[in-house]
């Protein structure tokens, strides 16, 4: 147990720094999330293009729906908040 106030503040600071550090799996988690986003975006865009009977995939085919879905997940599951 720290005996002086400066030691107490130092201990609290060390705990806060340790809590705010990213763990080893952070990079992999970001990679997986980005990969899932791109796969979903491509799949929805392809489905939208098939629905419109076009051979060209355009922004309007999936961008809004996929962005809405992933922004909702980011808010609910606290992605990218370290």
Task: Briefly say what this structure is.
The protein is mainly α.
Please tell me about this protein's structure.
InterPro entries: Histone-fold. One of its GO terms (molecular function) is protein heterodimerization activity. It is a single chain. The chain is mostly helical. The protein has a domain at 22-77: Histone, subunit A (Orthogonal Bundle). The protein is 70% helix and 0% strand. The protein contains three helices and no strands. It has helices at 5-20, 26-51, 63-77. It starts with a helix and ends in a 5-residue tail after the last helix. Residues 74-82 have low confidence and may be disordered.
CATH class of one domain: Mainly Alpha
User: Average pLDDT across residues?
Assistant: 74
State the shape.
rod-shaped
Number of strands: 0
Sheet bearing the most strands, described? none
Provide the CATH topology of one domain: Histone, subunit A
CATH architectural type of one domain: Orthogonal Bundle
């Amino acid at each position: 147990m720290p005996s002086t106030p400066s030691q107490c503040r130092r201990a609290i600071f060390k705990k806060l720094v340790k809590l705010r550090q990213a763990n080893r799996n952070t990079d992999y988690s970001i990679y997986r999330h980005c990969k899932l986003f791109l796969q979903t975006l491509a799949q929805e865009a392809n489905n939208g293009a098939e629905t419109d009977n076009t051979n060209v995939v355009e922004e309007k085919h999936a961008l809004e729906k996929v962005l809405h879905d992933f922004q909702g997940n980011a808010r609910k599951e606290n992605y990218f908040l370290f």
